[in-house]
């Protein structure tokens, strides 16, 4: 079987009658730009021969590629998927190539992926997750973030404040506090919180904000249960809540996927939502359109947050932090008492 050898930069240079260095400057970029007549000869030779520029060579010449990396904690989670979608749409408008990886909420994997993007001379990266509270993890992540930025690449983080990079921060505390106020306004008084993992700042901020909102009315939650930041975590925590027989009338889950899992658990136990038990979540993910009864929640502009993260990551500007407020949306899953 005869396989045709790939066309090399040397082949193009010989066809155009120029040095390999000149051909590289034309096709891969660089500081010294050859005169127009040479550029035309090199490009014509490349087209005739069917030459495809080497991406790694271009990166070396330009100090970066047109690649943007997206690192998400869990791409199956609609919250992260919606933000990543905003990043990808904004990148497409800027003719940037996107590489995406799911870290599965593993801090070491996240650090390794960011280091890999640095080695590949990515132009920028967007990290979408929740800030961890472990000091060792924070220190190691900060060191890699600094190394990534020192390589000349841009970086923006979503929901991970405290790093020396552009940061998009949803106002979790304020949104959860306002939700608590509006649920109290419906006459609800007996609350439980499905709080998520204590080591994730997002989960803690939403839990603490909700508790603060209840405290304004002199109310304390009857129960606070931890669980995974997932649908199954919400299902398990809701089952535990029912077994405790706490007498609550309203359950707040710190994200929508936990709330959806909780509603499934309540249905499996024969508990009517909202007739016997009201349920609310946080995020307003797109999949809620198919949930019945429609879930009360705090709406975040997820795609807009992703778009803005990409814009900041490639802006070349000094690190800035931008906060996005949430909007309480009361739907059929919570009732007035």
Automatic annotation (TrEMBL):
SUPFAM superfamilies: lambda repressor-like DNA-binding domains, Periplasmic binding protein-like I
The organism's place on the tree of life at top rank: Bacteria
Pfam families (alphabetical): LacI (PF00356), Peripla_BP_3 (PF13377)
This protein's UniProt keywords: DNA-binding, Transcription, Transcription regulation
SMART domains linked: HTH_LACI
Record-linked CDD domains: HTH_LacI (cd01392), PBP1_LacI_sugar_binding-like (cd06267)
Molecular function (Gene Ontology), one example: DNA binding
HTH lacI-type domain mapped to chain residues: 7-62
Protein name: LacI family DNA-binding transcriptional regulator
Upper taxonomic lineage: Bacteria, Bacillati, Actinomycetota, Actinomycetes, Propionibacteriales
């Amino acid at each position: 079987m005869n396989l045709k050898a790939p066309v090399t930069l040397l082949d193009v240079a010989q066809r155009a009658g120029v040095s390999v260095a000149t051909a590289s400057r034309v096709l891969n970029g660089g500081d010294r730009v050859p005169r127009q007549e040479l550029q035309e000869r090199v490009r014509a030779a490349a087209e005739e021969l069917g030459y495809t520029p080497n991406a790694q060579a271009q990166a070396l010449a330009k100090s970066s590629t047109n690649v943007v990396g997206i690192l998400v904690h869990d791409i199956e989670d609609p919250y992260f998927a919606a933000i990543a979608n905003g990043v990808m749409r904004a990148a497409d408008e800027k003719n940037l190539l996107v590489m995406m990886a799911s870290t599965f909420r593993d801090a070491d994997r996240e650090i390794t992926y960011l280091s890999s993007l640095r080695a590949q001379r990515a132009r920028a990266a967007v990290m979408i997750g929740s800030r961890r509270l472990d000091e060792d993890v924070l220190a190691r992540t900060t060191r890699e973030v600094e190394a990534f930025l020192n390589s000349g690449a841009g970086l923006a983080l979503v929901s991970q404040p405290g790093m020396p990079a552009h940061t998009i921060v949803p106002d979790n505390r304020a949104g959860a506090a306002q939700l608590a106020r509006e649920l109290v306004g419906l006459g609800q008084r007996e609350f439980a919180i499905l709080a998520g993992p204590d080591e994730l700042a997002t989960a803690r901020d939403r839990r603490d904000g909700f508790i603060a909102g209840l405290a304004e009315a002199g109310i304390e939650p009857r129960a606070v249960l931890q669980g995974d930041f997932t649908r199954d975590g919400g299902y398990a925590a809701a089952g535990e809540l029912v077994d405790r027989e706490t007498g609550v009338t309203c359950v707040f889950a710190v994200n929508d996927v936990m709330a959806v899992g909780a509603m499934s658990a309540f249905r499996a136990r024969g508990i009517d939502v909202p007739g016997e038990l009201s349920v609310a979540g946080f995020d307003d993910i797109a999949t809620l359109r198919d949930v019945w009864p429609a879930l009360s929640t705090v709406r975040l502009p997820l795609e807009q947050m992703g778009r803005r993260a990409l814009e900041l990551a490639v802006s070349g500007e000094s690190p800035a932090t931008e906060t996005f407020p949430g909007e309480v949306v009361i739907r059929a899953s919570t009732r007035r008492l």
